[in-house]
Design a protein that fits this description.
With 238 residues, the protein is of the alpha/beta class. Helices cover 47% and strands 21% of the residues. Strands 3-2-1-4-5-7-6 form a seven-stranded mixed sheet, sandwiched between helices. Strand 4, helix 7 (133-143) and strand 5 (144-155) form a beta-alpha-beta unit. Helix 8 runs antiparallel to helix 9. The radius of gyration is 17 Å and the shape is globular.
Length: 238
Amino acid sequence: MTTKRTLSDLFTAGAHRYDLLVGANPGYHRHLDTAAGRLARDARPQRVLDLGCGTGASTAAILRAAPWASVRGVDASAGMVERARAKQWPPGQVEFAQGMAGDAEVMAGEEGERPYDACLAAYLLRNVPPHDRTAVLRSVGEQLREGGALAIQDYSVAGSRRAALVWHLVCWLVVIPLSALTLGDTRLYRYLWRSVREMEDVGSWRARLREAGFEPVAVHPGSGWQRDLLHTVIAVRR
């Protein structure tokens, strides 16, 4: 069983090669840019929460889409946050914090009295235990202004045999062997394989969003080999 603590430790252990491995994923950065671009068009955000920011790839995507915005990145993994902080960012525009998704104090930061205009949660929801997901979404909603936008981007193969087969082959023929070569440790990427196979379907995401005080307004599928595998749901806080 993978607990919150052991999962964050796995991400920390893999942080030094994380950018290399996700960079080998065709379309990874392009899909982040697409999700961030939708947020920028819909919300014209001045302040953005990047929840599950990892090493900062999603943070960079937000700034490409909304170069005027201030961004607070939050991630549970100390190693990921350390890597993100070490990169070059516009002075005074980006900050990072280590903490769990749903922790109001960590998400709010020093400017907690001013709500966010938008939140990007890329590849996060799957890493939250199912019994905590609605509560985490509700906590995110409390950080957003009324009408603020949330983009959830993640993998799920639920309901698609094709996507399940593609995911299995990509992981066991490419991702897991590559992690063995670069990290000497496959645990994080075996968890990745398993977590996507077990992830609930997009209909469940939308139901959770409604229960948490959001209104889903659009669902965007992935393209290419990630068709029926990658999903982006855009929602607004009621």
